[in-house]
Amino acid sequence: MKAILNELKRMTGLIKRPLRLMEVCGTHTVAIFRHGIRDVIPKETALLSGPGCPVCVTSVKDVDAAVSMSKMTGVILATFGDMMRVPGGEQSLNDARSEGADIRIFYSPMDALRTAMEEKGREVVFFATGFETTSPLIAATVSEAERRGVDNFSIYSTHKLVPPALKALLDSPDVMVDGFILPGHVSTIIGSKPYQFISSQYKKPGVITGFEAEEIIEGIFMLVKQIYDCRSEVEIQYSKVVREEGNPAAVSVIERCFEPCDAHWRGIGTIPGSGLRLREEYKRFNALLKLRPGVPDNPEPAACSCGDVLRGIKTPPECGMFGSACTPESPVGACMVSTEGSCSAYYKYGAYRG
Amino acid sequence: MGLIVDKILLGHGSGGKLMHELIREHFGPSFGIEGFSDAAILDVDSRKLAFTTDSYVVSPLFFPGGNIGDLAVYGTVNDLSVSGAEPLFLSAGFIIEEGFSIERLKDIVLSMARAAKEAGVKIVAGDTKVVNKGKGDGVFINTAGIGVLHEGMEISPLRIRKGDKVLINSEIGNHGIAVISERNGICFDPPVVSDTRPLNGIVRSIREFGEDVHFMRDPTRGGLATTLKEAALESRKNIRIRETSLPIAPQVKGACDLLGLDPLYVANEGALVAFVSPGSAEAIVNSMRGHAHGTETRIIGEVEDSAESMVLLQTRIGGNRIIEMLQGEQLPRIC
User: Fold this and answer.
1) Cβ contact (<8 Å) for B316 and A213?
2) Which terminus of chain B is more exposed, N or C, with fewer CB under 10 A?
3) Could you tell me if A217 and A313 lie in one domain?
4) Residue A142 shares a structural domain with residue A269
5) For residue B110, is it within any domain?
6) Mean pLDDT, rounded, for A284-306
7) CATH code, domain with B230
8) Are B109 and B239 in a shared domain?
9) B50 and B88 share a domain?
10) Domains of chain A: total
């Protein structure tokens, strides 16, 4: 690894300008802090966090809808644990639970389906958040619910897709990125092809990267090498897990249940074709149509810089509320809530000390 | 628009920052208690006694390597032990939910008896209450314990000095992962079992080093990270530890990757962290290794001069990571 770091140093020295590399995935953001990557790579190589934490990009309105459904008579709201503390317009799911709403945390949507089968008199609503890594699980669960004829299970899908978000970033003039450290887990499902536009259309390099220290450093090295060689390609560092074609079986499970739709990303806005909704033939599993909750129209917190942080324009400490009005105990923006949110990572790993 | 915490959240019981605030703002001032440690040290007729209490709400009640019963005995024994005391007597209070199986209660009580025997303590007082079905979760147990301080030992974070070596007796994260895997039906091969066990024996094995043992704590809720940060804050010193020295079982690391947890913050029930004089460190490590619960004892770091109260982890690749206290809840109801 010493050799790779020396070569990285040599190349950045010759490139003669600071480089801005964006890690899209929240797991990378955390791993970069945990391994102390910034301390060993050249200072000219800045690492920015992108919009790759599903919790962080879930909109206020989506949280409000989930809170609203959790308070309906007979409903059990099932969710991944990370969503509990995300602030909505008025309340988080945690607040709703402390007022008596039946909200349960699951690691797998299949367990929520099992709960629905055990508690026939209740409606189990799964708050389906996540990227391409979790959507196959949700799709498989919906298929299973259909197969078993379960009629008291539904989902509220706020699923999002990574490639359209990257396209939106590249289209916005204030986002300055020289290359992308592309997500490892998401790419296991979708492969490398959906990212090709990054190199072909926008002439930026991208490297699908693993999560160990050596893998991240190698991913950075491969990016800098492309910049040094004036190339722009989508390469795979994480080849022990990710194949070019991804996992076609998982993709077809997603496509059977879901179709793309426009989705609202917290702090960023609506990105065309970046969400997933249930197809017409599965609409009886759509909690929104089934329960028709009243959802208040709450704005996003005005002073919150989540949007700029998620687009790599600001680093978390550059937000006026970071560490003062907004902390992991009482978060204002979702980036401070999720363990993989960039603000939470900066706060937790002490980077705000400079 | 910062959200004000006006209700008790599960995070208030996780041993991290929220719980510290609750104690500092409410319990401490109301009861007139200033210093906080694992046990109160009391002067009674020129003898120094240690007194402590702890409640156990672990879910599930039975997990690989233990159950709520032995946890309730060892937890209190360990709080007394790391205060530098030999535990002697325990009380046991039971809050049982209506409808709970007497057979299961018997299993729990027998485990407590076995644990008390193993630790060499007597359970001498108790209490039983039953609450309506749905108002508890099977059984909750409270234990309180009394011990006598070892002669010559004075355990306090204020005694932590620059240059002190930081020791740990065993792997970290096993208890938390054992409980969470049981709770979620995740199996590991070989299985991860809780490290719940008494620490009074291993403390006895180093009692001869007396004053050279400056501070000890068992990193339970909040994990090793929270314990080290507390020590750094209370001693106003920096602590530097090395990632390569941290003992973490491969299955625990794998489980943490899978569940998005950090082993540094996962609970332990039989781990002991000690801050000792550098001159005696090697001898203390050897004594601890001679004890059944300390065969893996090693030095994981040092205390530095700087007074910023920072805990720094030197990563495997030579980078630095700042370690903070557990924020919110990582895993509720772990003990």
Assistant:
1) yes
2) N
3) no
4) yes
5) yes
6) 89
7) 3.90.650.10
8) no
9) yes
10) 2
> What is the pLDDT, as a whole number, of residue A261?
96
Which chain B residues are within 8 Å of A67, Cβ to Cβ? none
Is the domain of A48 the same as that of A144?
yes
Instruction: Establish if B318 touches chain A: CB-CB under 8 angstroms.
Output: yes
pLDDT of A214: 95
- Residues A314, A291, single domain; the answer is no
pLDDT digits (tens, 9 = 90+) for A127-177: 999 999 999 999 999 999 999 999 999 999 999 999 999 999 999 888 899
Strands (E), chain B: 40-44, 47-56, 62-63, 66-67, 85-97, 122-131, 139-149, 165-168, 213-217, 238-242, 273-276, 298-304, 311-314, 320-323
Residues of chain B with pLDDT under 70: 1-5, 327-332, 334
| Whether residues B177 and B209 fall in one domain | yes
Distance CA A86, CA B309 (A): 30
Q: pTM score, two decimals? A: 0.81
d(CA A49, CA A26): 8
Are B177 and B240 contained in the same domain? yes
A to B CB pairs, distance under 8 Å: 83
Q: Residue A40: its chain B contacts at CB < 8 A?
A: 317-319
Contact between B324 and A37 using a beta-carbon 8 Å cutoff: no
Nearest C-alpha in A relative to B311: A350
A55 within 8 A of A63, measured Cβ to Cβ: no
Give φ, ψ of A24 to 5 degrees.
-80, -30
Interface predicted TM-score (ipTM) of this complex, two decimals: 0.70
Interchain CB distance below 8 Å, B310 and A350: yes
- Which CATH number fits the domain that encloses residue B133? 3.30.1330.10
Contact B43, B149 (CB under 8 A): no
A4: which 2 tokens? 């790779």
Instruction: Judge: B319–A36 Cβ closer than 8 Å, yes or no.
Output: yes
A80-100 confidence digits (pLDDT tens): 988 998 889 999 999 999 899
- The number of distinct structural domains making up chain B is 2
* Last residue of one domain, picked from the residues B107, B123, B149: B149
Chain-chain contact of B317 with A217 (C-beta, under 8 angstroms): yes
B124 interfacial to chain A (CB closer than 8 Å): no
Q: What domain range is B198 assigned to?
A: 157-323
- 8 A C-beta contact, residue A204 and residue A177: yes
Q: Which of A107, A111, A115, A346 to mutate to test the interface with B (most CBs of B within 10 A)?
A: A107
The rounded distance, in Å, linking the Cα atoms of B130 and B125 is: 17
- For residue A300, give the chain B residue with the closest CA: B1
Task: With beta carbons under 8 A apart, name residues in chain A contacting B313.
Answer: 36
pLDDT band at A334; cut points 50, 70, 90: confident
Backbone angles phi, psi at A318, to 5 degrees: -80, -5
